[in-house]
Amino acid sequence: MMNDKIALKLNELLLYCRNVMPSDADVKVCKDSLDMQTNNSNSIQKLTCLYFYKVLMELSGSFVCVYEKEEFFSSATLLRSFFEYYIELKWINKDFDNRFELRDKDATKQKSKMINSAKQSKSHSFDNFKEDPRTEESIKRNKEYLKDHNGVSIEEMCKDIGFSEFYTPYYRQLSEFAHVNLRRLSNNKFNGEDYYQIFDKYILMVVKAIKCSTSMLAKIWFNREILVIDSLISEIENLFENK
Predict the structure, then answer these.
(1) 8-state DSSP, 151
(2) Distances (CA, A) of 139 to 53, 96, 120, 132
(3) Measured between alpha carbons, how far is 169 from 164 in angstroms, rounded to an integer?
(4) For 110-128, what is the mean pLDDT?
(5) What are phi and psi of 63, to 5 degrees?
(6) Whether residue 35 has pLDDT greater than 90
(7) What CA–CA distances, in Å, run from 28 to 23, 35, 101, 215, 221?
(8) Where are the alpha helices (DSSP H) in 93-223?
(9) Helical (H) or strand (E) element with 16
(10) Contact criterion met (CB below 8 Å) for 207 and 9
(11) Residue 210 near residue 13 (C-beta atoms within 8 A)
């Protein structure tokens, strides 16, 4: 089971980070600026960063809860999603304007696949959707928007942000848990102690990712550094060293 002191400090860290987030009033001002100036890149970057950060806080909090219950497969699935959002956050903010458009096209591509699948479906539940003239208009508009578009993979993002050493040994290992893997399910050598050895290193990586993400949020939203978080993280690292 997770060390009680470590769990307490992790929850303290997450609580602190949630309090760092901009207030509802700050978010409203930011959203209002978009209404006045549609192409306000700074506001779009702020809101995008906040979206990623909220997801990271939710995933990390859920991870701590299920890990304390020794639910290892759920822990791994949450971790995989956590790192995907973290990698994306770092990657997109390296060149926000260009990369935001690229990822918007990736999202549009996924939406187009769903539209095409619904259009080709034999289910009568999609009849109104197929007959709606906006469906065909959307297909044509998306096709034009996605012309000559090539997406980017998680592995490519890792290389770009200097995270290559993470992809193969760590991300791929998490994928074994996140996807159905009969070898993993039937391999009796994986007992509780083995799982703790696997996940201990991930917890420290999560802590460092939270620090980096919080610093990024503070910089983008308030143009300032956050120093208090360093002492909390040092305490957690010391607890692991003395475990």
Answers:
(1) -
(2) 32, 27, 13, 12
(3) 10
(4) 87
(5) -60, -45
(6) no
(7) 9, 11, 23, 22, 13
(8) 96-120, 127-131, 133-145, 154-160, 164-166, 172-178, 182-186, 192-222
(9) helix 4-20
(10) no
(11) yes
Q: Which two tokens stand for residue 241?
A: 């060293």
Q: Closest Cα partner for 88 from 179, 158, 173?
A: 158
Residue 228 reports pLDDT greater than 80: no
- Output the average pLDDT for the chain: 85
List % helix, strand, coil for the chain (3-state, nearest 5). 80, 0, 20
pLDDT above 70: residue 182: no
Span 214-225, average pLDDT: 91
What pLDDT was estimated at residue 149? 85
200: confidence class by pLDDT, cuts 50, 70, 90: confident
